[in-house]
Amino acid sequence: MELEIDIRKTLRSGKRSxxxxxxxxxxxxxIVIYGPSGSGKSLTxxxxxxxxxxxxxxxxxGGTTLFDSRAGIDLAPQARKVxxxxxxxxxxxxxxxxxxxxxxxxxxxLNPRENLCHEAVDYWLGAFHLEHLAHQFPAELSxxxxxxxxxxxxxxxxxxxxxxxxxxxALDPALRVRMRAELDELQRRLEVPMVLITHDEDDVxxxxxxxxxxxxxxIADPGMDCSEALLHDAAD
Amino acid sequence: xxxxxxxxGLSLKVAGWATALNLVLGVGVGxxxxxxxxxxxxxxxxxxxxxxxxxxxxxxxxxxxVLGRRGWLGSWLQESFGINLIFTWQGAxxxxxxxxxxxxxxxxxxxxxxxxxxxxxxxxxxxxxxIGVFFRVTLPLAWRxxxxxxxxxxxxxxxxxxxxxxxxGSIPGKTQTLSVAVYEAVQAGQDEVANTLVLITSAVCIxxxxxxxxxxxxxxxxx
Lengths: 236, 223
Known about the structure:
The structure holds 2 protein chains of 2 kinds. Chain A has 9 helices and 11 strands. Chain A has helices spanning about 40-50, 75-80, 95-100, 120-125, 145-155, 175-190, 200-205, 225-230, 230-235; strands at about 1-15, 15-25, 30-35, 55-60, 65-70, 75, 80-85, 160-165, 195-200, 210-215, 220.
């Protein structure tokens, strides 16, 4: 999958300001954007999903222009057909696991019913071993179960790409290793292209086919070694 | 005794209408103030909160000035539609609506502001249209806070006295609500009637407050 990002955005808060100026072009099934917190990687991923509007530039994903300020193109998040896994999963607290997974399959004004019957929902409940939790609410789940529910919810509608925001940061170390292996296996099986942002070197080692380093809102030179680009952060 | 029940019926009708109007207006204004940044937002919030702190008689006087026969709105309504609101139960509805309005829009604004914006973003990415995001995510998560405010507003509208008396007067069976009837009964020395009215009013208010207490955020696990 071809991903092309060329965007600029200035954020101001009081007297401080942050300039995001990201240019990257990547093709591959697993793209990793690696950078310390505050480097602008979440903003970049949000821009791809349509949750943050850049000041200028363009974003293309798999041949589709998602955003182009010059051509006046800015697809709504609903029209981009990407899946987004939030860092703390953003599961709907008022809906059960089954309703959460089926959320995107039902249009209109009403949430899916609690006994929603849908082949795809049943499939994902099974694939992630969540059947016995189908009627639980997110608050009653463990960290790993929450992540599986969020992944199932993201994948159920066959997205064009899976965007992952620090997917393992909210898990404890042992679980992190297991969920990383699960995602690795899942991605190979589904062949869904993914863009993962992280500040964890282990994620880079596991998924880093195409790694881009982000620092202070800018992508480091492609030729430059990532660890070198991020060397300053080790001192933090 | 008949007069007590008709006063209760009228009070419930007025409070019911005022609450229904406030549900729509209060949720709308609460959402506007929570989500849209515009110049004068704080000033608007302050002005809309005024009915909570102003003496109801002052409010009633304002309403008379605006809605009376010589008021700009009142004369226009009279000339264009032949509508007169003074000394009618509809006038009492307007008085009760305005007095109780801050009790709805304030908690509604707070409830909308407390909804995690990330959940709405998650719904958008999942392909759900904006109207669906509101009815499926925002409103269910804010609902408890809104409902508690709505019940308080109902209780407040039920007890409205000052502004109602000024704009709707005290016509038995037509505009004489419970709280006005209590006043009239005491003035006329009808202690027995007053006792009945007071007990009815207290019972209704206690029932409403208990319901509101059950619905207050945090009492039941956030589901």
